[in-house]
Amino acid sequence: MVVRPVGHDIVDSAGDSDLQRRLIVCSILVAVLGLGTALLIYLRAGEDRELAENVQTIVVDGKTYQIPLASTKTYQRDLQRFGGKTSVLADDLTRWFNGLWHGRSLARTTAWITAFFSVGLFLLARQMPPDQGPGGRGDARGTEIE
Fold it and tell me: What is the mean pLDDT of residues 55-65?
């Protein structure tokens, strides 16, 4: 038994439903706004640098080098001595994750999150079935049974 909407013998597969169109428009809008924001952040942000109080300054042959305190052997050894290798790994992971939210890294993170959500909305719109006609799903009005 096949149920078809009255007056709609063949469902137009080329025509998108209103919801599909709205989702595609939202996908494009998310992409434009998100990538535009990421570009603005990237252009306005300076280079990613550690804060001055988290840096050790070393002078070698008249040149100054700034080394982040978290990457010194003393810090790594003390951290491993008190917390084990898991503590060192957790510290590295935490510093990496916190670094995603500053400067140009924030712009890259914003661009990837935007791309993920925009593509997700687009794929959701593409997976939706075509418009069911005036009766819609679960509505017995406007349908005929063959």
Answer: 86
Please state, in angstroms and rounded to a whole number, the distance separating the CA atoms of residues 39 and 33.
Answer: 10
- Residue 62 DSSP class: T
Say which residues have a Cβ less than 8 Å from residue 66's Cβ, sequence separation at least 6: 50, 55, 56, 57, 58
C-beta atoms surrounding 110 within 10 Å: 20
What is the Cα–Cα distance from 19 to 99, expressed in whole angstroms? Answer: 38
Within 14-122, strands assigned E span: 55-60, 63-68
103, two tokens: 């400067």
Cα of 49 vs its chain's centroid, Å? 24
Q: Read off the pLDDT of residues 73-99 as tens digits, 9 standing for 90 and up.
A: 888 999 999 999 999 999 989 988 988
